[in-house]
């Protein structure tokens, strides 16, 4: 799922292939009783949450706001040289 989410940004066809592959793997792990359905759903939710957090962290405006908060707490003074 995570590979699909990042691939869809650049290569739509490759992303669709990855989504199909992921669906087959999810079916196989449940069908072969290696995992429960809730494990598969939890993995998908975890991948989407990780993707969202990384994309949010890479958002330039978010990073600038965080940097401004850190600078405000640490102060803008620098030691004299």
Commentary on this structure:
The protein has 81 residues and is an all-alpha fold. It has four helices and no strands. The chain is elongated and about 55 Å long.
Q: What is the overall number of helices? A: 4
The helix-strand sequence is HHHH
Residue-averaged pLDDT, rounded? 83
Q: What distance separates the N and C termini?
A: 51 Å
Strand content: under 5%
Radius of gyration: 20 Å
User: What helical percentage do the residues reach?
Assistant: over 70%
Total beta-strand segments: 0
Please outline the major beta sheet: none
> Which class best fits the helix and strand makeup?
mainly alpha
Poorly predicted runs of 5 or more residues = none
What would you call the shape? elongated
What are its keywords?
81 residues
Task: Outline the fold blueprint.
Elements lengths: L1 H6 L4 H20 L5 H22 L1 H15 L7
Q: What is the structure about, briefly put?
A:
With 81 residues, the protein is mainly alpha-helical.
